[in-house]
Specification:
With 349 residues, the chain is α+β, with helices and mostly antiparallel strands. Helices cover 46% and strands 23% of the residues. The longest helix is centred in the middle third of the chain and has 48 residues. The chain is elongated. It catalyses: ATP + protein L-histidine = ADP + protein N-phospho-L-histidine. Pfam families: HATPase_c, PAS_9.
Length: 349
C-alpha cells in the first residue's frame, strides 16, 4: 500500500541518506528531471542542484541532519535537458534510520511568473524615474522664458492700447503666463517631494481646482465654445495632493476639448458622489470616446494614442493614473465610440 502511494503520487517523493545520496525516488521525480533511478542514485544530490543554490541547499541539509524539520524550502535543480526546475521542499529526518523523507512540489511556472512581474515592475520603475527627470527638467527649463514673458507684461503700457479685443487678449495671456509659472513652481516642489517619497495631502476643494483650470484653459474653452456643467454638492472636497488634482482636471478637460466629435462643441459634466463610503469624482464628456473591447486595457498605458488626427504623446492619462494610484486612489473609465467617456476617480478613504 505504501509503495503504491509512493509510486502513484503526482508530487515528487524521495528518501535520502545522511551521506547526501538518494535512496529512493518516485516516478514523478524521475519524469520531472528526466533522469533514471540509477542516474539519480549514482551521484550526490547536490550534483543535480543549480550551481547558485548549492551552498544554501547544503546548509539546509546540515540542519536537517540535526533533526530540524524543513518546510517550503525553495531551490533549483537542473534537468537532464539542462532546464532549470524550481522545487519547493518539505522534509522530515528520521535520525534512528539516518534517512530524510521529503516531498517536493514543482513551482517553476509560479517562479517564472513572479520573475516576469519583477522584471515588468523594474521596467515600470525605470520609466517612472525617467518621467520624473523629464518633468523636472522641463519644468525647470521653462521657468526662465516664462519669467521673461511675465516681465514683458509688467513693462507693457496698456494705456496706449485702444482696441478692447487686443487688450482682452493681452490680459488673458498675462493671466495664463502667471498661472503657468505657478504650476511650474508647484510641479517642481511636487517632483522634489515625490523623489523623497513625500506627498502633501491637504483638503482640496473641487470648485477651486475647476476655477483655476478654466482660467488656464480660458482661451481654448472660449474658442471651442465648450460647455462645462458641474455639481459638487454631494462632496465639495477631498484630501489629496493639490498639484495632482490640478493635473487630473487639466488633462481630462483638455482631452475632452481635443477629442470632441467634429462639428459639435465640447460638453463636459463634472460631479462628485459618495460611493461605498468613498469620495468619487465623475467626469463625463460627449466626445469620440474609446472602443473598450479593442483598447480598454491600453487607455492608461504610456505612449498610447487612439486618434492620429490630433497632436499628443499619449502621456496624460498614464500620468494621472500613476498620480492617483501612488496616493492610494483609483481611476477607471466607461466608454463607447462616439458616445463619450465617463472617468471615475476614487479618492483614498
Amino acid at each position: 500500500m505504501k509503495q503504491h502511494f509512493f509510486d502513484s503520487s503526482v508530487d515528487m517523493l524521495c528518501i535520502a541518506n545522511y551521506e547526501g545520496y538518494f535512496v529512493e525516488v518516485n516516478p514523478a521525480f524521475m519524469n520531472l528531471l528526466g533522469f533514471s533511478r540509477e542516474e539519480l542514485m549514482s551521484k550526490k544530490i547536490n550534483d543535480f542542484v543549480f550551481d547558485h543554490d548549492k551552498d544554501s541547499t547544503q546548509e539546509i541539509r546540515e540542519g536537517i541532519h540535526k533533526n530540524e524539520k524543513l518546510i517550503n524550502f525553495q531551490n533549483r535543480y537542473v534537468s537532464k535537458l539542462g532546464e532549470i526546475v524550481w522545487l519547493s521542499w518539505s522534509a522530515v529526518p528520521v535520525d534512528t534510520e539516518k534517512l530524510v523523507y521529503a516531498i517536493a512540489r514543482d513551482i517553476t511556472d509560479e517562479m517564472n511568473l513572479k520573475n516576469e512581474r519583477i522584471l515588468e515592475l523594474t521596467k515600470l520603475k525605470s520609466v517612472n524615474e525617467d518621467l520624473i527627470r523629464l518633468n523636472y527638467t522641463t519644468s525647470h527649463d521653462l521657468r526662465a522664458p516664462i519669467n521673461n514673458l511675465i516681465s514683458l507684461f509688467n513693462v507693457l503700457d496698456y494705456s496706449v492700447i485702444k482696441d478692447e479685443d487686443t487688450m482682452q487678449i493681452l490680459r488673458y495671456m498675462e493671466v495664463s503666463a502667471k498661472d503657468v509659472k505657478e504650476s511650474l513652481e508647484s510641479y517642481l516642489n511636487l517632483i522634489e517631494s515625490a523623489s523623497k517619497g513625500l506627498h502633501s495631502f491637504t483638503e482640496v476643494f473641487f470648485d477651486n481646482i475647476l476655477a483655476k483650470t478654466r482660467s488656464t484653459l480660458s482661451a481654448i474653452i472660449k474658442s471651442s465654445q465648450s460647455q462645462i456643467d458641474f455639481d459638487f454638492s454631494n462632496c465639495e472636497s477631498a484630501y489629496f495632493d493639490n498639484a495632482y488634482m490640478e493635473s487630473i482636471f487639466l488633462n481630462l478637460m483638455t482631452n475632452s476639448i481635443k477629442y470632441t466629435i467634429p462639428g459639435s462643441p465640447p460638453k463636459m459634466e463634472i460631479r462628485t458622489e459618495i460611493q461605498d463610503g468613498k469620495k468619487v469624482l465623475l467626469f463625463k464628456d460627449y466626445g469620440q470616446g474609446f472602443d473598450m473591447e479593442k483598447n480598454g486595457d491600453k487607455i492608461f498605458g504610456l505612449n498610447q494614442r487612439f486618434n492620429d488626427t490630433q497632436e499628443g504623446k499619449g502621456v496624460g492619462l498614464y500620468l494621472i493614473q500613476n498620480q492617483i494610484n501612488s496616493l492610494g486612489g483609483a481611476i477607471s473609465v466607461e466608454s463607447e465610440p462616439n458616445k463619450g467617456a465617463t472617468f471615475s476617480v476614487v479618492f483614498p478613504a
